[in-house]
Amino acid sequence: MRRLVMLFLPLMLAACGGGADDPREFVKNAGKDLRGRVAPLPEVKPYEPFTYEAMDLPDPFKPRKLEPPKGSGGGLAPDFNRPKEALENYPLESLKMVGTLSQGKITYAIIKTPDNSLYRVKPGNHLGQNFGIITQVTESEVKLTEIVQDSGGDWVERPASLTLSEEPAAPAKK
């Protein structure tokens, strides 16, 4: 074993030292062909202090009532003293128009409630929980005007409608 190590030791030393140039010469010539360029530093702008002047603005986190424009009466409001009709107990979204009925010159809409009750309504009747009053009844739609409060607390009119809903026919009994 010792002879084997003695035989390979000169070979390993010859492999390490063969063909290598002087390290000082290598370092001297390593950067000879490189020409680097560094971009100039950006210009530093002088500090300009900011003065906060929003103390006079309203606080966005406090609720406030918007002021109505000058000259507006703002007299729109629902009649809280009139007796409520049966269909005012249901949200408008839960009611369905299932048909129409004509008697003389008046066209009535047939309205179905969530508890499967049917009601006959005409223009002038009230509908839904937002003080809706029916303005027009057609073959396929009931148009109404609701009175709701806006974000400022004022009462405004909003159009709404119920369209004719096709219910699937019941299967025939054998």
From TrEMBL:
Residues 1-20 form the signal peptide. InterPro entries: PilP. Keywords: Signal. It comes from the Bacteria. Gene3D superfamilies: 2.30.30.830. This is Pilus assembly protein PilP. The lineage of its organism: Bacteria, Pseudomonadati, Pseudomonadota, Betaproteobacteria, Burkholderiales.
